[in-house]
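Late entry, pyridoxal-5'-phosphate complex.
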Amino acid sequence: MSNKRPLHPSTIAVRTQTERTQQMEHSTPLFLTSSFTFENAESMRAAFADESDDNIYSRYSNPTVDEFAHKIALLEKCEAGFAVASGMAAVFNSFMALLKTGDHLLCCRSMFGGTNTVVTKFLGKFGIEFTLVDAADIDNWEASVKPNTKMLYLETPTNPQLELIDLEKAGRLAKKHNLIFNVDNCFATPFLQTPADFGADLVIHSATKWIDGQGRVLGGVIAGKKELINEVYLFCRNSGPTLSAFNAWVLTKSLETLDVRITRHSANALKVAEKLQKNAQLEWVKYPFLPSHPQHEIAKKQMSAGGGIVCFEIKGGVEAGRKFMDALQLLSLTPNLGDSRSIASHPASTTHSKLSEEERSKVGITPGLIRISVGLEHPDDVIYDIEQALSSIN
Ligand SMILES: *Cc1c(COP(=O)(O)O)cnc(C)c1O
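Prediction complete; structure with ligand written out below:
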């Protein structure tokens, strides 16, 4: 389109597409090919000498993968993007490409389990130090900044505790100390929150969750400032966390419906949270857009809706949590989230079962904590299933 009027994000998500081929396809094509051909030796030489943008090999670039990464970069208001095989590949490679021995990483304590393992168990192997800070203590984070602090990393809302971090304050701190501000925006998606508005230099995603939205493929993406994404690209084209073109095709098609889906997921989740709030068998219910959420004001400031995850604490601890899971009839018992199908998980008996109760409570995993990923079924059916499971516990 030739006029300069900026397009809305939902239009960008639908209409950003690889240039049409001579087959005149309407839906975006899938370039399932490991390498690309050249007309002659000279064009091949020029491509290898970086004198042309021609595709060479799919570990370096692939039109379908690039379409997906480019679309995410536009939606996240970032200059560039690079797609990888999973959310964890996005997290790990954003560290590996930009940190080196002797650097220090400032990190929020409540974060995705895999990220926590990478930070606390593996970064030390490369001589990278870290400090974990609490979401609620953001006004004191500055005391943990050291002369060698290079990056501030966080996710908001956090998985699974649904803690929120004030992106404006975090962005200001990063700017003041010249830190690379790296945000995992998986739970909100670019349709509910764009961290670049608050100064994020990098925005990463597990595309496996809401972006796919139907539990089919794994994927990840790192978007951000061009100079940083260039470093990520140079590292990844050699280390090889490549996203499959097939998965990229599924994910770029999924982006066409993300706005509609995440809006409905959020509306359904709010209905579920509001109804459960009145349930006497629950200690508490947590959802960013419930006024009872301790950081509700932050949610309203930086998110346009609350997302699809609702958490609650069942009275009766671990045993009650297990009984609740067994009594569900509609909801799926599976560790994924962000699916059209509603999902229940009980972290204390599954993802966090190897930790002691004390370690769990430090990261906000209480014994009866249940995480619901609210799907696209009719919300009354989701509520009915949760309520019948709760009432069968006693
Ligand atoms: C799932 C998840 C990841 C990891 O993504 P994978 O695609 O499973 O590798 C990272 N961050 C958050 C917040 C997640 O929920």
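The pocket of pyridoxal-5'-phosphate is lined by residues 86-88, 91, 112, 114-115, 155, 159, 184, 186-187, 206, 208-209, 218, 220 (CB under 6 Å). Will revisit in the morning.
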